[in-house]
Amino acid sequence: MESPTSSVLDALNRNPSSLTDLTISAVRQGVANGALQPGELYSVYKLAEDLGISRSPVREALLRLAETGMVKIERNRGFRVVLPSPRDIAEIFSIRLALEVPAARRAANHSEPAPRSKVRQQYKSLELAAESQDIAAFEQHDQQLHALLIAGQGGHRTVRLVNSLRDSTRMLGVSTMGQERTLEEISLEHLPIVEAFEAGDGEAAAASMKEHLTATGRLLIQKALKATGSGDSVDQIWSEFAD
Amino acid sequence: MESPTSSVLDALNRNPSSLTDLTISAVRQGVANGALQPGELYSVYKLAEDLGISRSPVREALLRLAETGMVKIERNRGFRVVLPSPRDIAEIFSIRLALEVPAARRAANHSEPAPRSKVRQQYKSLELAAESQDIAAFEQHDQQLHALLIAGQGGHRTVRLVNSLRDSTRMLGVSTMGQERTLEEISLEHLPIVEAFEAGDGEAAAASMKEHLTATGRLLIQKALKATGSGDSVDQIWSEFAD
DNA sequence: CACTAACATGTAGCATGTTAGTCATGACAG
DNA sequence: CTGTCATGACTAACATGCTACATGTTAGTG
Questions:
Q1: Do the Cβ atoms of A69 and B69 come closer than 8 Å?
Q2: Is B140 within 8 Å of B60 (Cβ atoms)?
Q3: pLDDT given at position A60
Q4: Helix axes A19-32, A55-68, angle to 10 degrees
């Protein structure tokens, strides 16, 4: 194996864990910035070469991503980044609603000073990223804000689960972000959640979280429907999964 | 490579897919029947030898199981089957409640003849397994019944997700099954759900599903608390995650 | 006797060789 | 022109060799 590229080394130094984890991050990033196109066929061979590492960790990374549905592996053919169907999106958001709305309620009802300042801080970072149109940073702080609102008591599994669901819709956000909704608008949707959390108002937190997720989910479904040219309506699909 | 054991061959014939999948099944089964003890340290090396295959598919299987939390891999040491803490169990059931209760409601409200007969049939199999004290069959039909009640429109992800959550608590069921509750009792808990589903009564289905999952979850937490000798109460832990 | 350093052992993680399956291409028969 | 079949390129899946590391043990030091 020749000398790894500097970016690989950098990532290695930041995170001494494993090349598999590194590869997972790399694929996520590639999907986020469009380097990996949904539907296109790629091979473990080439990806390993590009990353300057061997096939084993790359393969392991892809298997784990396939487990979450972000990627599909085709035997003896290669792998594809999966573009979720409108129904997939609806299901994903129905799950997120089922998990995050009660979580937001509980979090607000039990909110304490320390997590409050963290949430506020995270929201400020989100605003900042929105102002400077930094989509990558925006995505990251959005994720961390949602994670904070779930983590309350230590819902590790729930956080991991929601993060993996976000993975599946990440490639949709890329094209959507800053078009239908500006980053500022999305950022503002979080404000009532944060305020309700700080006020310890569980019901308000739940309601505004529900509104936020519903708006996001429906928008992504609409986007996906336009892309597929299907005749189905957003309402119809949405009603199959969420109320 | 010597001759694989007959059980391995059997599993291979049933499922011609991949050795990785075979290994996942083998580990699940090993956990279910106590061949793999929680907390004990095992090695990929030996497991691969026992299965009569190479280390690669075994390693891949364990990585995927680690992803779901059923197993923990320790670098350069081995892997352990994870015994979930009382809090872990509470979180798992809070997730299952969030997903399965609304799913049961929707399923009942949209129930049609075809799925109805399938559900009824699955319930009969469950009863039968309970009568004959066949724990393995009982587990399987229990899982399939829950899956049917979720799958409604095609909630593939939700089904997979719930199945993976069940994985994490499987080793607890082993020791519990047929002690605190008899199989017949557990089977009977499903009856009101099935009846509400057949009657198209969403609210009743949701309520009885909630009752069933709550009873199961609390029982497992109690069991786990006794094992750890902790002073926490079931109510206290339960209230941190579920309502 | 306490305490440390060298070493033996066993492991995950990674690299790489091997096997067998899939598909595109094009020759060729009808 | 069309459908069939050989063939070659490419691939995932699997097997296996290698390396660095974590840990328990033992030998050496005060």
A1: no
A2: no
A3: 94
A4: 60
**What's chain B's average pLDDT?**
88
In chain A, residues with a C-beta closer than 8 Å to the C-beta of B154 are 87, 91
Q: Report the C-alpha gap between B149 and B188 in whole angstroms.
A: 16
Nearest CA in chain B to A240: B153
A-B CB pairs within 8 A amount to 68
Taking the C-alpha atoms of residue B33 and residue B31, their distance in angstroms, rounded to an integer, is 6
What are the residues whose beta carbons fall under 8 Å from the beta carbon of A235, sequence distance 6 or more? none
Q: What is the mean pLDDT of residues B217-222?
A: 94
Tokens of B181: 């509750």
Distance from residue B80's CA to nucleotide D29's C1', rounded to whole Å = 39
Residue of B nearest to A155 (CA): B91
Q: How many CB atoms lie within 10 A of CB B219?
A: 19
Decide if pLDDT at A1 tops 60: no
Q: Answer whether residue A12 shows pLDDT above 50.
A: no
Joined together, the tokens standing for residue A69 give 């549905």
Cβ(B105)–Cβ(B117) under 8 Å?
A: no
**CA triple A25-A26-A30, angle to 5 deg:** 120
Closest by Cα among A242, A199, A196, A195 to A217: A242
Q: Which two tokens stand for residue B109?
A: 């409200």
- Domains, chain A, with CATH or none: 6-81 (1.10.10.10), 86-241 (1.20.120.530)
The pLDDT of residue B56 is above 90: yes
**What would the pLDDT profile of A124-153 be if each residue is shown by its tens digit?**
999 999 999 998 899 999 999 999 999 876
